[in-house]
Every structure is written in structure tokens, then in C-alpha cells.
């Protein structure tokens, strides 16, 4: 017979202590967000160097727009597939395979010598974005329902931080290679090898030091959920698609801004490469706390008001995000642009956390599929926003203005949607995913 301590070590955690590495739950939590951080670092590693790439390859505004779209479009399909693989193979093997696959184009993009080849490599790199689905799925496995929103938000936020840090670090890596005597075309290519190699290292770490569940890997345990979940069951729930829209309006805009921010500050406000990267990095740095706050607040609201309260919270965050983006679009002052950016970034990243505080409770038997569909919505939002930035007839400021209007409209759609089950309108987070 198992001791009480032994049983608790094999169960989802009831609390989150971010300073602890004790137990497979916390070890997996930390390895998961760190891995996700480096996935984001590799995914957007080229973004702060786009000014150099633009000059090297002679890219036009429309071509840069196509590159932005390519960088997030492949992730749409990858996230749908990855979500299903998590439900079947488990997050450990799925993440390991994705890291091995994703490292290839990150390292290989240095071979690009034309717009067409650069576009194809950027498209392939986008597959790494599916790492988010695994991160949220794996974190959900390790924590009890009352803390899932917080745990998912912290893991997602700290991982997303990689998109901001890469804007700060990659210009320095580039400058280091230039200082070592390499030309600028050589330096940006060599710089991209760094995140690619790190992804290979993290593939080994993930395979070696994580487990699918607190009770063990899928191959080692008998799961209550052994009956195969249905992707179509997850897709037939209208709440999945409301969250699909919501995540497109928050995370979709985040990855768009990660792609365009450094170039925007460089060309519109005439900042040098390092300054533009630093300002863009500040946007990503907000993930250190803002997404976590969104998850924590959503858990608190959910405990008192159930799923409906979480929906209203998400609607409010999207509305304020939209207002902030509109203000950002209308300022000609660098200082005011930074202030507006910090404002809409805070609400945007809180909305990210609030969205995935709802996801695990939509369909307990198909958490991976729901997570994949909603995550794909984020990337579709990035793709659609990318078309605005590639247009020769729309300025970047106008593109941001239109995006702000759309985000506000989606906030209204979320506000009038019902997230609680029709037969359980008064439930208080009873939808615990049957995880192990």
C-alpha cells in the first residue's frame, strides 16, 4: 500500500511555489517554461535583426510583411497537430520531437541568400510556436484545478518573455560577431546559430528530466482517460471558438508586435538597432508579471463567480487592450508611444493569462485539442494582422489603429458569450480535467 506522502507526490499540486524545484511537478514546471522561453527566443530571434536582413537581401515592405505572415502561419497547423499529439503520445515525447525538428530551420536560416529562401526558412521556424500548446498542457497536468490558471499563466508568461529578451540580446550577439571581424551579412547568420543549438540542448533536458504526469509517463501508467479523446468534440463546443477569437485578439497581436516592433521603432522614430531592440524588448519583458497577474486574477474571479466571471474579466481586458493600441497608433512622440505600448501590453498579456485560465475547463477529456485550437487562434490573429503591415497603402500607424478597433469588437463578443455549461450555471470550477 502506498503511503500518504507517496500518493501526494503522484498527485497534481494544490499550490504553486515558484522558488521550489522539489518533486516532478515543480521540476517539470520549471523545465517547461524555460524550454518555452528558448523556443520563443528562437522563433523571434531574427526579428530584431530585420533591419540588417532587409538591407542585406534588399527586401521590400510587402516582402517583409510576407515574412511576418510566414513566421506565424505555420504555427496554426502545428498547434492543431501538437494538441492532439499531447493527448495521445504525451507532452514529454511531443516536446522533445518538436525541439529537434524546430532547431533545424533556426540554425539553417543562415543559409538563406534570397527573399524566397529566407521566406521558406521563416515559415519553417514558425513550427516552434506550437511549443506553447505543450507548455500549457503539461502545466495543466501538474496542478490542481484551483491553481491551473495561475500555473498556466506564470509558465506561459515567463516563456513568452523569450520574445522580449531576444529583442534585447540578439542585437548584442550580432554586434559581438561584427566586433570579431565578421561582416554584417555573416554576423546575422552566425547569430541565429546560438538559439538553434540551445534548442537541441533543451530537447535532451526535456526528454531526460520531465514526466508526462505526476504519476509517470503515459507509457508507464494506466490512464483514466485511456479512451481516446475527440478533436471534433472539442471543436464542436462554441466556447472553444470564442476563446479562439479572444486569443487571436491578444496573443495574435503580441506575436505581431514582437515581429514588427524593432523595425517600427527603427524606421518611424529613427532609433538605432540597439535602442529599437531595447524598446521592443520592454514590450516582451512585461510577460515577467502581466500574464501571471491575468491568470491569478482569473482564478480569484472564477472561485467567486465561476466561468461567467472569467469570461467577463477577459472581455474587459480585451477592451482596454484595444483602447491602448488605438492610443499607441495616434502618437508621434517616442516617449508617449512607449507609455501607450506599456499600457496595452499590460492588458494584452493579462488577457493571455485569463484565456488559458478558462481553456482547461472547456472539455476535460480533450484538453490538448482545446488548447491547440485556441492556440491556433492566436496565430491566425497574427497572420491576419500581418496582412495590414504588408500593404503598401496602409501605414504602420493605420494598421495599429485598425487592430485596436478589431480587438475592442472581439472584447464585446466575449462579453456577451456564456462560458458556463447550460446545465451548471452556478458551478464554481468543478470541471477538473481528468488528468492522470
TrEMBL record:
Coiled coil: none annotated. It is found in: Cell membrane; Membrane. The chain crosses the membrane at residues 31-50, 62-81, 93-112, 118-137, 158-182, 188-209, 230-253, 273-290, 311-329, 335-359, 366-387, 399-419. Residues 28-423 form the Major facilitator superfamily (MFS) profile domain. InterPro entries: MFS, MFS_dom, MFS_trans_sf, NO3_transporter, NO3_transporter_NarK/NarU-like. Keywords: Cell membrane, Membrane, Nitrate assimilation, Transmembrane, Transmembrane helix, Transport. It comes from the Bacteria. Gene3D superfamilies: MFS general substrate transporter like domains. It holds the Pfam family MFS_1. The keyword Cell membrane applies. It is a multi-pass membrane protein. The keyword Cell inner membrane does not apply. Its main location: membrane. Belongs to the major facilitator superfamily. Nitrate/nitrite porter (TC 2.A.1.8) family. This is Nitrate/nitrite transporter. It comes from Flectobacillus rivi. The lineage of its organism: Bacteria, Pseudomonadati, Bacteroidota, Cytophagia, Cytophagales.
